[in-house]
C-alpha cells in the first residue's frame, strides 16, 4: 500500500508543541520531580500526587519509543494528551472528543492497544493512516478477536474486553482526526457504520449477572480457618519474631554500624565471644542450607564440624565486617571446642512458646527454630493471613485495602455496656476523582484485630505509612496455601487447602453471597454473620454513599434473588405434593393454591394465561419480600402483630422479625421444609444424648430437655408427614 496523503511534518506538534504534559492534564507533581514534556518519548507519571496505591508502576510510565515510525509516534502522543486534557482549546472543539479526562490507567491501556495496532499496520505493509478503510478495520478486529497457536491456527476467542479495546483504538483515531499533525485517517472513514466500540465488541450488558465466581466451600473453609488461627494464635508470637529479625539485621548484618574493616585476626574478641556462648549454653548460629551447599562446592568436607557454623555472623558479633578465610587456621580450635560443647542451631525461634494446635489435639512450640529467610517468610505468611481475614470478612476492594495506613484503626466506641463498634479509615478509589475519597468502614472485632496485627508486623510503623502498600494477592495467597499444606502447617494441625483460584474480587463476592444466601454457611461457621451484617448496615447508615453502601446494595440484590428462588422452589414442591409443615404451613399452602389457580388455564376467565417462570415469579414477588431465613425454618413476616418473636421482645411494631428469638414450633408465621429436617434431626439426636447423660438428681434440667427433645421429634415427624402426604393420598 502507498501513502494516500501527506501532511507537513517538522517533528513538532501543531497543537501541543513544548507542552507540559502534567500541567495540561491537571496532574500535580512534587517540585523536585522532573516534569514530562510533550516532546519526550517517555512520560513518567510515577510521582503524580493522588495516584491510587494499587496502580502498577508499569502503568505510570508511558513509552512512545515502542512506535518506530516518527509520524505515528507524534499521532500517539497527541491522542494520549488529548484524552488526558479534554479542556485544551484545540480538543474541546472536536465534536466527538471525550468531555471528561480519562484516568492514567485507561490512557495506559489505550496507548498499549495503539502500539499493537500501529505495529500490526506496519506488518501489513501500511505506511500511512490515510489509506485505512473499513476492510483494514475489520481485519484488525478479526486479528484481535481470535487466539492462534504458533502455526496460525485459531484455538480460541479473546474476551469482549479485548475486542472492545481493538475497536476503540480505531474509533479514537477517527474521533480525534482533526487534531493530528503528521498523519490522519480518511475524513470519510466510518468503521462499523459509526457504532460504538462497546457495540462492536458485543459487550454484555452491565445489568447481567455478576460473572465473578465465589470461592469454593472446599477452599474457603480451610483457608479462613487457617487465617483466623494464624492471626489469633501465631500473630502475637510472629510480632516478637519480626522484632528479632529487625534487631539481628541492625546488629549482625554487613551494614551494621561500628564494624571494623581491618584484616587482623580478632583472636581475643573471638575467645571472649565463644566463652559467652559457652557460659550461657547458647548454640552457635547455623548457616542456611544453601550456604552449606556453597561450602561443599568450595571443597569443605561433609564431616567438618564447622561446616554449618555461621562464621560471618560470629565475626560481626566480634566487631569485624567479615570472616576472612585465613583466620580459620587460628580460630578453628576455639570454634570446634565451642561446637562440641553447645552445638549449632538456627538463630530464630529458639525456645518458642507453646500453643494449642488448630485441631486442639496437642500443645507444642509455636515454631521450630528458623534461619533468617525462614523467619522472614513466616512473618510474611502471618501478614498474608491478616490480609485474608480483612478481605474475606470486611468485603473491602483491593484498592481500598492498599490505601489503608498505619493509624487507620479508630478507637473502639462503646455505645452500650459490653458492646463495641470498630471502625477503619481508608479511601474509596473506584469511581472517585484522582486522590480518592476518604471513607470509613464499620467492621467486626476479628477484622480490627487483624489490622492491629498488621500494624505491629510493619517494618517501619510510622503514623500515616502504608499498611500493606501495593501487593500481588494471588502470589501471596499461593505462598500462604503452600505453607498451610506443608509440613510446617500440618505440624500445627491445619487442614490442607485444596488447589483452586482465590482472588480479592472472589472474596468480596463470597461475602456478599454468604450474607444474602447462606447465613448459616461455611463463613458463618467461623465468623458471626449477624455481626457482619450489622457492621455493614451501620457503615451504610454512617455514610449512605460510601463503600459499605455499595456492598450492602449488592447483598440486598442477592437476598432478593435468593428469596425469589426459594419461594419458587417451595411453590414447585407444593405442585409436586411436597408440602410445608409448621404453624404457618396452612397459610402458605393457601397462598400457593391461589397462585396455582391463577396459573390453571382451565380456570382462567380471560384469554391470557400465565405459565412461564417469569410470570410465576411476578405472582410470588410480594411473598418473597417478606421471607426471612431462620436457622431451622422460614419466617413469612406478613403481619408483625402475629410475630411471636416481637411479642416476646415487646416490640410489636418492628418492621423486621427477631430471627434470633424465633420459636418456629409455635410462631404462626413460621414454616418447616425438607431442607430443615437435618437441623431438627441433629438437634433431637444431641438432646437425646444429653438426656441420657443427666444424673437422676437433675430433674429440672431433665424436664426442660425432655420437652425440647419431644418438640424436635415432633417437628421432624411433621416434615416427614407433609412430604409424604400426597404420595399416600395417591
Report on the structure:
The structure is a single chain. With 730 residues, this protein is mostly helical. The protein has 26 helices and 14 strands. Strands 9-10-11 form a 3-stranded antiparallel sheet. It is flat, with a radius of gyration of 34 Å. The N and C termini lie far apart (81 Å).
Short structural description:
This protein is mainly alpha-helical and 730 residues long. Helices cover 49% and strands 8% of the residues.
Write the layout of secondary structure elements.
Blueprint: H1 21-25, E1 42-44, E2 61-63, H2 70-84, H3 89-92, H4 104-123, H5 134-145, E3 146-148, E4 154-157, H6 160-175, H7 197-200, H8 217-252, H9 267-279, E5 284-285, H10 289-297, H11 311-317, H12 328-342, E6 344-345, E7 354-356, E8 363-365, H13 372-394, H14 398-402, E9 409-416, E10 419-428, E11 437-443, H15 445-457, H16 473-485, H17 487-491, H18 504-517, H19 522-526, H20 529-542, H21 547-575, H22 585-599, H23 613-624, E12 627-629, E13 634-636, H24 644-649, E14 670-671, H25 677-693, H26 699-729
Parallel strand pairs: 5-6
Antiparallel strand pairs: 1-2, 3-4, 7-8, 9-10, 10-11, 12-13, 13-14
Helix pairs in contact: 2-4, 4-6, 5-6, 8-13, 8-15, 9-12, 13-15, 13-16, 13-18, 18-21, 20-21, 21-23, 25-26
Amino acid at each position: 500500500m502507498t501513502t494516500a496523503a501527506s501532511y507537513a511534518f517538522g517533528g513538532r506538534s501543531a497543537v501541543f508543541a513544548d507542552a507540559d504534559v502534567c500541567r495540561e492534564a491537571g496532574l500535580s507533581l512534587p517540585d523536585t520531580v522532573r516534569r514530562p514534556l510533550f516532546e519526550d518519548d517517555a512520560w513518567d507519571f510515577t510521582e503524580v500526587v493522588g495516584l491510587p496505591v494499587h496502580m502498577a508502576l508499569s502503568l505510570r510510565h508511558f513509552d512512545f519509543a515502542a512506535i518506530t515510525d516518527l509520524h505515528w509516534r507524534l499521532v500517539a502522543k497527541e491522542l494520549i494528551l488529548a484524552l488526558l486534557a479534554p479542556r485544551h482549546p484545540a480538543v474541546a472543539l472536536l465534536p466527538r472528543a471525550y468531555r471528561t479526562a480519562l484516568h492514567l490507567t485507561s490512557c495506559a491501556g489505550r496507548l498499549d492497544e495503539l502500539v499493537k495496532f500501529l505495529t500490526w499496520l506496519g506488518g501489513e505493509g501500511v505506511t500511512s493512516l490515510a489509506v485505512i478503510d473499513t476492510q483494514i478495520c475489520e481485519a484488525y478486529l478479526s486479528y484481535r478477536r481470535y487466539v492462534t497457536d504458533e502455526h496460525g491456527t485459531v484455538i480460541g476467542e479473546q474476551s469482549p474486553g479485548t475486542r472492545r479495546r481493538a475497536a476503540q483504538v480505531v474509533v479514537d483515531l477517527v474521533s480525534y482526526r482533526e487534531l493530528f499533525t503528521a498523519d490522519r485517517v480518511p475524513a470519510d472513514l466510518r468503521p462499523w457504520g459509526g457504532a460504538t466500540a462497546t457495540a462492536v465488541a458485543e459487550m454484555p450488558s452491565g445489568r447481567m449477572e455478576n460473572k465473578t465466581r465465589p470461592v469454593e466451600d472446599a477452599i474457603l473453609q480451610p483457608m479462613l480457618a487457617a487465617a483466623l488461627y494464624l492471626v489469633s494464635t501465631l500473630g502475637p508470637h510472629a510480632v516478637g519474631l519480626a522484632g528479632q529479625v529487625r534487631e539481628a539485621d541492625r546488629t549482625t548484618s554487613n551494614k551494621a554500624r561500628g564494624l571494623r574493616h581491618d584484616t587482623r585476626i580478632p583472636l581475643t574478641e573471638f575467645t571472649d565471644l565463644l566463652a559467652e556462648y559457652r557460659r550461657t549454653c547458647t548454640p552457635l548460629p547455623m548457616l542456611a542450607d544453601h550456604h552449606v551447599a556453597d561450602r561443599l562446592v568450595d571443597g569443605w568436607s561433609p564431616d567438618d564440624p564447622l561446616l554449618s557454623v555461621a562464621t560471618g555472623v560470629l565475626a560481626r558479633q566480634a566487631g569485624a565486617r567479615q570472616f576472612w578465610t585465613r583466620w580459620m587456621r587460628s580460630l578453628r580450635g576455639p570454634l570446634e571446642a565451642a561446637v562440641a560443647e553447645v552445638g549449632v542451631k538456627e538463630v530464630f525461634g529458639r525456645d518458642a512458646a507453646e500453643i494449642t494446635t488448630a485441631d486442639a489435639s496437642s500443645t507444642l512450640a509455636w515454631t521450630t527454630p528458623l534461619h533468617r529467610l525462614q523467619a522472614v517468610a513466616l512473618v510474611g505468611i502471618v501478614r498474608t493471613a491478616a490480609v485474608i481475614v480483612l478481605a474475606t470478612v470486611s468485603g473491602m476492594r483491593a484498592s481500598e485495602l492498599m490505601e489503608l495506613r498505619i493509624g487507620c484503626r479508630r478507637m473502639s466506641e462503646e455505645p452500650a455496656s459490653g458492646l463495641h463498634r470498630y471502625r477503619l479509615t481508608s479511601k474509596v478509589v473506584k469511581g472517585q476523582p484522582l486522590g480518592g475519597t476518604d471513607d470509613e468502614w464499620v467492621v467486626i472485632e476479628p477484622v480490627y484485630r487483624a489490622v492491629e496485627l498488621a500494624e505491629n508486623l510493619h517494618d517501619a510503623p510510622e503514623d500515616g505509612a502504608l499498611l500493606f502498600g501495593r501487593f500481588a494477592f494471588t502470589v501471596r495467597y499461593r505462598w500462604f496455601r503452600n505453607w498451610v499444606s506443608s509440613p510446617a502447617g500440618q505440624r500445627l494441625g491445619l487442614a490442607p487447602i485444596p488447589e483452586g483460584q482465590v482472588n480479592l474480587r472472589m472474596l468480596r463476592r463470597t461475602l456478599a453471597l454468604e450474607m444474602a444466601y447462606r447465613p448459616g454457611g461455611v463463613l458463618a461457621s467461623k465468623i458471626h454473620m449477624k455481626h457482619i451484617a450489622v457492621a455493614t448496615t451501620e457503615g451504610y447508615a454512617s455514610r449512605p454513599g460510601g463503600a459499605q453502601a455499595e456492598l450492602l446494595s449488592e447483598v440486598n440484590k442477592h437476598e432478593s434473588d435468593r428469596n425469589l428462588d426459594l419461594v419458587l422452589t417451595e411453590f414447585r414442591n407444593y405442585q409436586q405434593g411436597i408440602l410445608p409443615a409448621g404453624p404457618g404451613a396452612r397459610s402458605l399452602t393457601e397462598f400457593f393454591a391461589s397462585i396455582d389457580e391463577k396459573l390453571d388455564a382451565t380456570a382462567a376467565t380471560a384469554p391470557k394465561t400465565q405459565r412461564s417462570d417469569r410470570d410465576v415469579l411476578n405472582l410470588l414477588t410480594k411473598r418473597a419480600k417478606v421471607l426471612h431465613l431462620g436457622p431451622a425454618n422460614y419466617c413469612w413476616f406478613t403481619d408483625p402483630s402475629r410475630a411471636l418473636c416481637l411479642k416476646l421482645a415487646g416490640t410489636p411494631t418492628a418492621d423486621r422479625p427477631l430471627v434470633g428469638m424465633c420459636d418456629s414450633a409455635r410462631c404462626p408465621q413460621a414454616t418447616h421444609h425438607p431442607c430443615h429436617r437435618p437441623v431438627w434431626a441433629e438437634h433431637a439426636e444431641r438432646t437425646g444424648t444429653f438426656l441420657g447423660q443427666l444424673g437422676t438428681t437433675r430433674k429440672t434440667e431433665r424436664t426442660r430437655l425432655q420437652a425440647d427433645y419431644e418438640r424436635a421429634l415432633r417437628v421432624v415427624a411433621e416434615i416427614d408427614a407433609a412430604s409424604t402426604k400426597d404420595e399416600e393420598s395417591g
